[in-house]
Amino acid sequence: MSGSGKTVKNKLPAGSGKVLKKVLKVIGGHKLLVVLSMIFAAASVVMQLYVPMLFGDAIDEIKDNGHIDLTALGGYLTEILILTAASAVIIWVMNLINNRLAFRTVQDIRSKAIRQLQELPLSYLDRCSTGDIVQRVIADTDQLADGLLLGFNQLFSGIVTIIVTLVFMLSKNVFITLMVLVMTPVSFLVARFISDRTYSMFGKQTKTRGQQTALINEIIANQKVVKAFGCEQKVSDRFKNINEELKNYSQSAVFFSSLTNPSTRAVNNVIYALVALVGAFRIMAGRLSVGGLTVLLSYSNQYMKPFNDISSVITELTNALACANRVFELIEAEPQIREQDTVMMISDGLVDIEHVDFSYVKDKPLIEDFNFRALPGTTTAIVGPTGCGKTTFINLLMRFYDVDKGCISVDGQDIRSVTRHSLRGMYGMVLQETWLKNGTVRDNIAFGKPEATDEEIIRAAKDSHCWEFIRRMPEGLDTVVRDDSLSQGQKQLLCIARVMLAEPPMLILDEATSSIDTRTELMIQEAFAKLMKGRTSFIVAHRLSTIHSADSILVMKAGRIMEQGDHTSLMQKGGFYTDLYNSQFAGVKAG
To answer: What 3-state class would DSSP assign to 96?
Structure first.
């Protein structure tokens, strides 16, 4: 059996060998299903292949004078009916097992991919488009499931068929069996030649399909922007180009892979004809009966049928392995740096940043020799022009990225020495970009504190000034919200309520009120003032009017701290901060 298994495997493209091993390793986690599938496959094949033997014996029961032994013939026909019915039931059960094996394998691979996404650093997610990642986890794994299902149904039965057929053929005629074996490699070489050239084409097809999914996701998510700038035609042209490229790769892959089956069938038909010719001569020589030739012709056809079936599945298997390769690239991507098991415990909230260097691209420094200390319970505002490193500073505090050099510590603990989960649990974070999950208002507010009571949720909603629009909703807190069912300002208020409910030891506000009207913003500022009291807080601000009360203001430019102090002292210096502040109000004064 090992020899036959190797032969079947060799029909797959050489470039897919490593991917196939990875898939087989996952399949190995379901050994019981694999064993059951092989047992049922063997049983069904033996029953099916014994039928031609019975037919051959029945033909030989026909005497030379034309008399037929009806009793013996009836016995043969009864056996044939029983074996055929039993084989049909076994094949049905085997298909159920194969379905479960294929979908459990894909379930395991998809689960690994999702778990890996939680472990990958943000730098990886920044490099890959959302649409392409979705394509790998959803569509590529679905394609893998289809390929595996066909593979299980054909390969297990095919391997057993080849072995059992050879045994039965040898029992009838050794010479003809050896002739068939000698001709078999020709079929393999033809299939191998074609499928090797198909794998790379399917790889390009799946990659382009991922680009297409990413573009569709981008267009749908930003349709308003596309229409506002009149870019419909430009976007359509981009999609047309990718679609054309996908069509070309798909046509090439399917065309070349479709040559496999007719090519191997042509070789197999030649083998079949040779068996008939040689068998006829042996009958005339008295070395073979008519029934025996009938059996050998049936077996030569049965012997070659698995190769025809497997070659017809090569297209799906090659495509499936190309898709699997993309999924395994995601699963095997280098995860973020492994962390210690130490849990962060905050007593005061003293944040020290010492000689920190960081860059997203190695040869393009962003933050260099950054030093700062945030005292417990103080509010620090970070301001500066676009691209100066404000959001990067927050990313480093939360360990979304690790520093290249230097150290960030909280209460004397290096944040790299504690778990990311415990570190991030110490911060409440409100971003300029809001995020709500598909669920009820209650679920979204209680996202960071699932055990919160309705009274606590309502209090947080009132403090964040979103209770007014919540209570006007059809089902109040039980109203199901989607990303497009609320205005940007309402979504931001719910995100603020989420943080107010969690009451974390420290706060990070990244332009948290950018989508809120001025009147509500003033009320939110008051609520934030209460929330920040006694908590170490960091505020990224573009509107400098919102940070007058900050204990310390960091004025950044090109990754460096240009100035530092409170609002009054910085204005008195008349430096970079003063220029920034005055530039924001120049238009107002001119009006």
So the answer is: helix
Please check whether residue 424 is in contact with residue 469, taking contact to mean a CB–CB distance below 8 angstroms. Answer: no
Q: What pLDDT, on the 0 to 100 scale, is given for residue 10?
A: 39
pTM for this prediction: 0.59
Q: What is the chain's alpha carbon radius of gyration, rounded to the nearest angstrom?
A: 35
Contacts 24+ apart (CB under 8 A), 121-129: 121/335, 121/336, 121/400, 121/401, 122/395, 122/400, 122/401, 123/360, 123/401, 124/333, 124/334, 126/360, 129/210, 129/211, 129/214, 129/217, 129/218
Instruction: State the CB neighbour count (10 A cutoff) for residue 348.
Output: 13
Q: What is the rounded CA–CA span in Å between residue 165 and residue 173? A: 12
- How far is the C-alpha of 59 from the C-alpha of 68, rounded, in Å? 9
Model confidence band, residue 407 (pLDDT cutoffs 50, 70, 90): very high
383 exposed, middle or buried (CB, 10 Å; 0-12, 13-18, 19+)? buried
**Predicted pLDDT of residue 107:** 85
CB-based burial, 394-421: b 16+ in 10 Å, e otherwise: bbbbbbbbbbeebebbbbebebbebbbe
Q: What token pair was written down for 150?
A: 């066909």
Domains of the chain: 2-6+16-331 (1.20.1560.10), 337-426+505-591 (3.40.50.300), 435-503 (3.40.50.300)
Distance, CA of 99 to CA of 101 (rounded, Å): 5
Pairing between strand 413-414 and 405-410? antiparallel
> pLDDT-derived band of residue 313, with 50, 70 and 90 as boundaries?
low
What span, in angstroms and rounded, lies between the C-alpha atoms of 497 and 309? 61
What is the β-pairing status of strands 560-565 and 552-557?
antiparallel
Question: Residue 557, SS3?
Answer: strand
Calpha distance 27→320 (Å, rounded): 15
Query: CA torsion sign, 458 to 461 to 463 to 466?
Result: negative
Beta bridge partner(s), residue 564: 554
Out of 110-114, 173-177, 524-528, least confident range: 524-528
Mean pLDDT in the chain?
Answer: 79
- If we measure between CA atoms, which residue out of 256, 265, 147, 137 comes closest to residue 199? 256
Distance of CA 501 to the CA centre of its chain: 33
Helix (H, G, I), strand (E, B) or coil at 482: coil
